[in-house]
């Protein structure tokens, strides 16, 4: 069965990833775009979600590619209209609203899929399998990228709920919470907030695993040139390194895998499986860690960020 799907919010990630992955996947047909500003030639267009929901009862699934601050309202409307919902990451602006959406989806008998694209990087599952029976000694995350390259002209990332550098940092945490055998807890954080902005441009976070080892995270949005998306895990049986955002896996310096980016193809394959089984997939562990880092974080004001 081919699932008709609508994209809500035709911004960077919708164009870069969702459109190509939907086009490639025979289980989906792009049936409409909901956008306040943009249209796509040959595809039905609506300026509001409510108009689309009323006019196209045949569209059973919506992919919400908006910023997190407005996602709950869109998700609620779609769920109440009996549609399945894919949420871009982070799945919401607060932990509680995502939990609430999960319950609402269950009540309405629809699938809710809170996506974490980095979990579909090809080194992540092998890393999880390798770590499953190891004793972990420490974990170091370094996630440094150039905000001007990945979020050109986007104001929402600097506004409350936009999460600042946690917008990419949560990708690292989504991998961390997937590959480690035991949960981790935030113990402290320093958040560097530009004096002209509301959200951090850099953050250092300390965690402790319930099994006792430490985790450190260094998130920074000021890195030009080569970008760094690395997670290094020291274990009793050797050193595991995930780099390139999870696409490269090394163990004790030996490359096990260096793969192409197929993250969003993985997301749509999983969505098709969820729709077939009638299940939801909503894991908020990494969103909770970001919330906790903000609860415990000391604020350090840094120089203004001018785009
Ligand atoms: P973006 O380029 O700013 O696009 C977001 C789109 O959401 C806008 O084009 C806008 O589309 C729509 N929108 C609806 N209500 C809005 C509102 N109140 N304020 C602003 N936009 C609104 O952002 P993006 O980079 O695609 O990011 C969207 C989501 O994808 C974020 O949660 C982000 O974390 C995630 N993501 C981004 C990247 C990346 O590389 N940028 C990578 C992975 C995931 P219309 O004008 O069409 O209505």
Automatic annotation (TrEMBL):
Q: Which residues form the Gfo/Idh/MocA-like oxidoreductase N-terminal domain?
A: 4-113
Protein name, per record: D-galactose 1-dehydrogenase
Question: Known InterPro entries for this protein?
Answer: Gfo/Idh/MocA-like_OxRdtase_N, Gfo/Idh/MocA_oxidrdct_glycsds, NAD(P)-bd_dom_sf
GO MF, one annotated term: nucleotide binding
SUPFAM superfamilies per record = NAD(P)-binding Rossmann-fold domains (SSF51735)
Taxonomically, which superkingdom?
Bacteria
Pfam families per the UniProt record, alphabetical? GFO_IDH_MocA (PF01408)
């Amino acid at each position: 069965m081919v699932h008709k799907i609508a994209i809500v919010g035709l911004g960077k990630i919708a164009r870069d990833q969702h459109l190509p992955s939907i086009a490639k996947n025979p289980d989906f047909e792009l049936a409409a775009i909901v956008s306040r500003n943009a249209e796509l030639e040959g595809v039905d267009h609506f300026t509001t979600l409510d108009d689309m929901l009323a006019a196209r009862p045949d569209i059973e699934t919506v992919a919400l590619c908006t910023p997190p601050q407005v996602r709950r309202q869109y998700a609620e409307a779609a769920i109440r209209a009996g549609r399945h919902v894919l949420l871009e990451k982070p799945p919401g602006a607060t932990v509680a609203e995502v939990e609430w959406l999960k319950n609402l989806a269950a009540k309405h008998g629809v699938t809710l899929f809170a996506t974490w694209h980095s979990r579909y990087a090809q080194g992540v599952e092998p890393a999880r399998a390798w770590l499953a029976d190891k004793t972990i000694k420490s974990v170091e995350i370094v996630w440094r990228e150039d905000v001007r390259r990945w979020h050109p002209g986007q104001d929402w990332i600097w506004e409350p709920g936009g999460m600042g550098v946690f917008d990419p940092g949560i990708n690292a945490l989504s991998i961390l919470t997937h590959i480690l055998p035991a949960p981790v807890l935030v113990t402290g954080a320093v958040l560097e907030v530009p004096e002209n902005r509301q959200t951090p441009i850099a953050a250092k976070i300390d965690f402790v695993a319930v099994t006792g080892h430490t985790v450190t995270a260094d998130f920074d949005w000021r890195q030009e040139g080569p970008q760094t998306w690395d997670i290094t895990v020291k274990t009793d049986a050797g050193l595991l390194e995930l780099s390139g955002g999870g696409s490269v896996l090394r163990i004790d310096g030996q490359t096990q895998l260096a793969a192409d980016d197929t993250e969003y193809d993985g997301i749509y394959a999983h969505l098709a499986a969820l729709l077939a089984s009638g299940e939801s997939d909503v894991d908020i562990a990494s969103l909770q860690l970001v919330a906790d880092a903000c609860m415990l974080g000391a604020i350090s004001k840094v120089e203004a960020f001018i785009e």
